[in-house]
Design brief:
Length: 357
């Protein structure tokens, strides 16, 4: 990248300030220490760097929350720069650690900043997460809400926190977020204690365009996904990932309102030729189809016959695994000749084909 500079009367090179935001935007992998060093170059760097640093701060400890709240209290001009907050603080591992009054005061201050648009709650805050939502007096500006319970649970199902993540969602909470466009919930072993999963968004399901589901539990996962899909009459993009064996493509049936789908990504979902046939009948507008994973039993010939049938007239991109699951042998890779046959069938229909090797 070329940098334009001018010279001062002392013949010292000086960067044009208008270029500073472009330089910062040209690289998405700046480290905080990079910003610290650049801010010391000249006063022209300070404003653009502050806007990036404070746009959506990530706070991973309660000490950081206290310091951040103090900074904003003492520098009110910085508050307007904060458009989002990523709050996933964890307590120290020692046995007697607990939230202090200072911690709670700083959290309340942060959660009530004016103009917040994006909010992520995780770590200790994902335990009875509704407590912290109720702390917020102004939620009408929030367009994206992400509650992440994954960071407090280890792979062996032991908990880094004293309790598992949980959320009591009700109409009172739902109606607080009148401008919500994105709702992301990450929990392990979800149990709907009362009501139905459809109650999450009340009457807003018709506005849902993108839906991502990562689940485990076999047929129970399919039932969970089907319940959500039945609400989404305008859905355009679906990502469904089953992280354990047992999820099948049976969730797709003629009654699901998925005719508006344009992008579908399935991972470790064992769909069959009948599932493909249903997709061909109901998803005539589908443009991108990705079916990946090692539990798939669809062979290359199934794909070739499906593509040759012209069942998805709008399809532009197809991505599949590089083989299929055979009960007697496990995952078996297709030969290069087989992949070439499938690629040729796709080319005939002007479909870009890609194998996940």
């Amino acid at each position: 990248m070329q940098t334009v500079t001018t010279t001062t009367s002392n013949d010292q090179p000086r960067i044009v300030n208008d270029l500073i935001p472009l330089i910062l935007e040209s690289n998405g992998h700046w480290w905080p220490r990079d910003f610290q060093r650049l801010a010391l170059v000249s006063t022209g760097w300070v404003g653009p760097i502050r806007r990036r640093l404070y746009a959506c701060p990530e706070l991973r400890s309660f000490r950081a929350c206290v310091q951040f709240a103090r900074t904003l209290s003492q520098n009110q001009h910085l508050r307007s720069l904060v458009r989002g907050i990523d709050l996933r603080p964890a307590l120290p591992s020692n046995e007697g650690a607990s939230l202090t009054e200072k911690d709670m005061t700083s959290l309340k201050f942060i959660l009530n900043l004016d103009g917040l648009e994006r909010l992520t709650i995780g770590g200790e805050l994902a335990v009875q997460a509704e407590r912290f939502i109720y702390m917020m007096s102004n939620t009408r500006s929030i367009t994206s809400l992400h509650i992440d319970g994954s960071h407090i649970q280890h792979d062996d199902d032991s908990f880094a926190c004293k309790q598992p993540a949980s959320l009591e969602w009700n109409e009172s909470i739902a109606f607080r977020f009148t401008r919500l466009r994105t709702l992301s919930l990450i929990f392990h072993n979800v149990t709907v204690a009362l009501g139905s999963i459809q109650n999450l968004c009340n009457d807003s399901w018709e506005s849902v365009k993108d839906l991502s589901i990562t689940a485990r539990g076999g047929e129970a996962s399919d039932d969970f996904a089907r319940d959500l899909l039945e609400c989404c009459e305008s859905i355009q993009s679906l990502h469904y990932e089953a992280s354990s064996a047992g999820a099948r493509g049976d969730l797709f049936d003629d009654d699901l309102p998925i005719g508006s789908l344009r992008k579908l990504r399935l991972y470790d979902v064992d769909i069959n030729p009948q599932s493909l046939s249903i997709l061909g009948q109901t998803c005539r507008n589908l443009e991108r189809l990705s079916v990946l994973g090692r539990s798939l039993r669809l062979c290359a010939q199934d794909w070739i016959e499906f593509i040759d049938s012209g069942a998805l007239p709008s399809l532009k991109v197809l991505k599949t695994s590089a083989g299929c699951y055979e009960p007697a042998f496990g995952f078996s890779r297709w030969t290069e000749d087989v992949r070439e046959q499938l690629s040729s069938s796709c080319a005939t229909r002007n479909i870009d084909f890609c194998c996940d090797m």
